Amino acid sequence: MYKNLTKRAALPMLALGLLLSCTPDEEQATPSSALNADATSNAANGAVSQAVKIKKGHYMLIASGSELPADLSSQVKGMKGNLTGIMKNVGIATVTSDDPAFAAQASKIKGVTVVPDLEIQWYNPDDMKVMAFDAEAFGNPPYSGDNDPYFELQWGHDAVDAPEAWNAGHRGKGVRVAVLDGGFDLDHPDLAPNIDMAASRSFVVGEELQYMLNNTFSHGTHTAGTVAAADNGFGVIGVAPEAELILVKVLRDSGSGSFSWMMQGILHAVEMGADVVNMSLGASLPVNGKFLDEDGNVINDTKAVQELLNAISKVTNYATQQGVTLIASAGNAANNGQKDKSLIHIPSGSANVISISATAPVGWAMNPLTANLDNLASYSNYGVTDVDFAAPGGDAAYPGSEIRKIGPVTQYVYVFDLVFSTGNNGWYWSAGTSMASPHAAGVAALIIGANGGDMDPAHVRAALRASADDIGKPGRDPYFGHGRVNAFRGVSALQ
């Protein structure tokens, strides 16, 4: 087994599973084939969505405006329903009922539409292969920006010119970033210094904020670390290492969750004063309205799809009006959204959400100084109107089996092309647009900090656009949108 490595290395989000060998002599899995998958994008060409299901007995009541009827609770109770939550300022309520006739009765409430809540497998941690390494103790180097022991593995920071932004004095201080995801390792030494525990919350019924599964990849811990792992001379460093983290659990540790939990999480972030919300999650709603219910029966409800899209738009529009910049992963199905109109990817395709595609090197460890870091990742969704910007997401497309050493770590070359960040009880490699989105969120945090805080989301988007590196065809292109985000250019433009 290798020495001087992290305790664990886990691979990619959303069914992008790869098995890493523990020693160079063991048989190596083919890295690239598993990357063209998305656990939530499988309802094309008239098929039935398998990962998006009707949640039996769970409903959302959606007002035509921003206010629900004052007597809604009593009306729902009279229909054998239980009002479980109200989303203030957007006119949405969550309800449970065991009565099969509830939806029909609730549809008679004046000014309200009733739709079923959805149960979505946003990602599956069982598809993420984990390997343990021997770890040697590291001495803590001085606090000097990029002197965290594993910083050399974080090629993504180099791609977005984060160190140059730090050296210019911009590190995200005073900016609050909400991370909506699964559970988090709250005691991780790279995360704990920056977590606002009082503002953090779990919306998952029966699960605390802390990630509780053993020996599996903590998706939320990884994304949070990319945004704002502390500059503490230990482990890794985030793109915005002095930003505050508001951790919001909207998915079970198993990767599943309700459509309504995501919306509640966004509204909570607004209430807690978030400047940026990162959503490294995604589901593709079938335009044909064909879902499965929890019993496996096919439900055809195109009206429900439109109402659900309306509901999430009400939430994202409200958040934007309150000064919150929303950023989300574009998805991992290698899908051309311009050609395939059978699916609608949310939340990246929702109103006022900045959608991020993924970039990656191919064989970075072979020559770190000259490697191209801006290839479109093999799995990334794309499309002119589907992608706003690109950011480092990692990939495992390198075909060779060479071994190289980067900093303190010796590994297969293709492994180094993945994104290295925090994980439960250690540090992990992973890849996906889920890893790209937090890079972009970190850059947005640096821009907001450079602006003095409280920046209008339209101005944040404009700053990202003005400072992005146009790495594709001139102008907006289907693979990189307006370009790959650039932290240094972003903060410099505001000075």
From TrEMBL:
Instruction: List the keywords (alphabetical).
Output: Hydrolase, Protease, Serine protease, Signal
Annotated InterPro entries: Peptidase_S8/S53_dom, Peptidase_S8/S53_dom_sf, Peptidase_S8_Ser-AS, Peptidase_S8_subtilisin-like, Peptidase_S8_subtilisin-rel
Instruction: Give the top-rank taxon of the lineage listed in the UniProt record for this protein.
Output: Bacteria
Keyword match Protease = yes
Leader sequence range is 1-29
Q: What is annotated as the active site?
A: 181, 219, 434
Q: Name one GO biological process term.
A: proteolysis
Q: Does the keyword Protease apply?
A: yes
Ranges for domain Peptidase S8/S53 come to: 172-483
- GO molecular function terms listed in the Swiss-Prot or TrEMBL record: serine-type endopeptidase activity
- Family membership noted in the UniProt record: Belongs to the peptidase S8 family.
Identification of the protein by name: Subtilase family protein
Provenance organism: Pontibacter mucosus
